Automatic annotation (TrEMBL):
<dbReference type="InterPro" id="IPR045584">
    <property type="entry name" value="Pilin-like"/>
</dbReference>
<keyword id="KW-0812">Transmembrane</keyword>
<dbReference type="GO" id="GO:0015627">
    <property type="term" value="C:type II protein secretion system complex"/>
</dbReference>
<keyword id="KW-0488">Methylation</keyword>
<dbReference type="GO" id="GO:0015628">
    <property type="term" value="P:protein secretion by the type II secretion system"/>
</dbReference>
<dbReference type="GO" id="GO:0016020">
    <property type="term" value="C:membrane"/>
</dbReference>
<feature type="transmembrane region" description="Helical">
    <location>
        <begin position="20"/>
        <end position="40"/>
    </location>
</feature>
<keyword id="KW-0472">Membrane</keyword>
<protein>
    <submittedName>
        <fullName>Prepilin-type N-terminal cleavage/methylation domain-containing protein</fullName>
    </submittedName>
</protein>
<dbReference type="InterPro" id="IPR000983">
    <property type="entry name" value="Bac_GSPG_pilin"/>
</dbReference>
<dbReference type="Pfam" id="PF07963">
    <property type="entry name" value="N_methyl"/>
</dbReference>
<dbReference type="InterPro" id="IPR012902">
    <property type="entry name" value="N_methyl_site"/>
</dbReference>
<keyword id="KW-1133">Transmembrane helix</keyword>
Length: 133
């Protein structure tokens, strides 16, 4: 046999196939699994960063609403729900990055307050407007 006939037989065998072999399917599936495994940590990290950014933004929004309420009423609201509709457009649940409700407490006859929540790692984050006791 010469090289031309070997190539012709190879070409006929390759071009005549109508599907993938089991080995080819397993190899592609394994490669996709490895790629997905490499992406998961970065996706998780991005998710935590997004939750922490949302927490800081929500604390800032609620802080601003409390300050406005305090200027108009002379004291802090007794509960966060008092801010809904007039100072905050809608109640989004006032939840932190771990889906726990913000901790809110007033002190000094309603003149000071503490507002805090937990970030995605579970660390406590206190709002900028809070007074530390």
């Amino acid at each position: 046999m010469n090289d031309g006939s070997v190539m012709m037989n190879f070409y006929k065998n390759v071009c005549g196939r109508k599907g993938f072999t089991l080995i080819e399917l397993v190899a592609v599936t394994a490669m996709l699994g490895v790629l997905a495994g490499m992406l998961l940590p970065s996706i998780d990290s991005a998710n935590k960063k997004a939750k922490n950014a949302k927490l800081k933004n929500d604390l800032l929004t609620v802080d601003s609403a409390i300050q406005l309420y305090k200027m108009e009423n002379g004291k802090c609201p007794e509960k966060l729900e008092d801010l809904v509709s007039e100072y905050i457009a809608r109640n989004k649940g006032f939840q932190d990055a771990t889906n726990t409700v913000f901790s809110y407490a007033t002190a000094d006859n309603g003149l000071n307050y503490t507002l805090k929540g937990n970030d995605a790692e579970g660390k406590e984050v206190v709002s900028d407007g809070s007074k530390q006791s």
